[in-house]
Amino acid sequence: MSERINVAVDAMGGDNAPAEVVKGAVEAVRESAKIKVFLVGREAAVKAELAKYDAAQDQIEIVDASEVIETAEPPVAAIRAKKDSSIVKGMKLVKEGRCDAFVSAGSTGAVLVGGQVLVGRIKGVERPPLAPVIPTAKGAALLIDCGANVDARASHLVQFAKMGSIYMEHILGVKNPRVGIVNIGAEEEKGNALVKETFPLLKACKGINFIGSVEARDIPAGEADVIVCEAFVGNVILKMYEGVGGTLIQEVKRGMMSTLRSKIGALLVKPALKETLKAFDLEQYGGAPLLGLKGLVVKTHGSSKSVEVKNSILQCIAFQEQKINDKIREQIVQQEET
Amino acid sequence: MSERINVAVDAMGGDNAPAEVVKGAVEAVRESAKIKVFLVGREAAVKAELAKYDAAQDQIEIVDASEVIETAEPPVAAIRAKKDSSIVKGMKLVKEGRCDAFVSAGSTGAVLVGGQVLVGRIKGVERPPLAPVIPTAKGAALLIDCGANVDARASHLVQFAKMGSIYMEHILGVKNPRVGIVNIGAEEEKGNALVKETFPLLKACKGINFIGSVEARDIPAGEADVIVCEAFVGNVILKMYEGVGGTLIQEVKRGMMSTLRSKIGALLVKPALKETLKAFDLEQYGGAPLLGLKGLVVKTHGSSKSVEVKNSILQCIAFQEQKINDKIREQIVQQEET
Known about the structure:
Helix content of chain A: 40-55%
Number of helices of chain A: 11
Strand content of chain A: 15-25%
Oligomer: homodimer
Largest sheet of chain A: 6 strands, mixed
Shape of chain A: globular
Radius of gyration of chain A: 21 Å
Number of strands of chain A: 11
Low-confidence stretches of chain A: none
Order of helices and strands of chain A: EHEHEHHEHEEHEHEEHHEEHH
Distance between the termini of chain A: 41 Å
């Protein structure tokens, strides 16, 4: 079975590790015979969790790693010092070619630093962006970059647009994805220095479907498929999604519980509402890929439960089968030559 | 009645001018005898609208202005060319001291440029920020800056923190308002170059209650009273409020209408829900003040109805009575001297 896609998984990462991570890995291999998972973490703890399930022996392997990088640790120092951590060991499996991808719910900083330092960038890629899929009224969009590179330059944003287009087209199946740059108005002359510099570059860029500026207001409505922005802005957008959504849903619930009449109504609307709000759940898509690396690195929420871990692992199949990295290489090299 | 607060109002500004603007002015003078409104705009059109109401003659005056600055016009050129526009004439009333404040639902760009060029900055204020009040789960917060100054510097953000604190304390009555800087993580070492430079300055700043970084996720929950950020980020936050809120409410409604059972439930929860969602309506607070000018300029939504116009006008009373500009002057001068 040399055709199998090998995914290293950080068994110690996230708030619910190792229990939910191991459960997610088991669910993933049950769902797809194409996957082999390498659970990287403290062997005894991982083994104990794994013993709870009856999973295909040949699809799950434990790789012992005695250390854990905590969320609060300074990432660069942690990556350097903790050679036997689940993140460093998992990333090295990718670097050495033993695995195709690495999935972690651990420290975002350590995953970003490790991706660049240990896995390494594809030649020509200036900065690897973190690109989560976010729900919209029309389906989903890719928010790129969302926290990997503060103080980005225009050339970085152009690469984000290209990599994002490839991802949306071949992983999410969006034909000719609409690329928009986040701006504070729809007109071309609007924006800060970075946006003003990037706009004409995107307009001139071949191979992407650039539709111009997108105001933050229009993102949830689904006005673009690839939302290009620098990391600080992307992070604010992602967090506002969570914050406004969370607070509003809480207030809606509180409103429904405020009178006897509304309480009865709440019982009746609950099932339908649950279905609707599920479509707006950020976690349904699995983790965010860190694009432009020699291998795939996926960062899932720190609060991930097994379903998100499973989706993050399964995401690696399409990434591999669609040869996303070959396509990125082609696009970036093409850019270098023009 | 020399004690009256004189408010110039752009009768031609916004999607619903002059009808809703005139109605809002009438409602404002009915609600407060302290106010005198100067409706600036095409006399015949304004007079025709005013004739529909029985308003105190001595509280409303029409100031003829033959031109209108459209939203799509380049602001600087428009302010220069259209000397007889409602925005230019209204701002001049403030500059000349005939009015204390100017309220407009017209072109944001023209209002921002006009504020700086025609009304002028308080001595020492580097950049006047646009600062809307946004709803939170705990009440309200001031988002400063929200679109006036792209590519801001650290010293600007420090002034925003001071001006915002004065506004929240004396207009909204929040004692010792908590000032937070928008960041992509809670730790002090996180952030882009601007935030890293601003953070220690805010920490060292006397007279404000700086609580550190605020992640966008925590803004709707009400974690800070004064949300300091540069205009691009502020604009994204404001637009995400509108976008996520709007889309989510639409989806909730759609969910409720999806089955017969949920439709019946929807009828029962509707009144309670309406009440809750009203608290999250961005327009309830009236317009956003442009702070740091020699006089008050308030920008209300282009889509303002009479109630928002009324609230924007009434806001000017507290601003004048609380001597906000004197307090800003004191704080800024104090900063200059230390």
